Amino acid sequence: MSSAKNPVVQGPAYTLRVIWACMKKDIKTALTERTFTIIGALVPLNVIILLSLFVVGGGLAPTAVVMLDNGPYAQQFYDAMSKAHSFRLQKVSEQEANSLMDVGRIVAIVNSMRASGRISRCR
Question: What is the pTM of this model?
Answer without folding.
Answer: 0.48
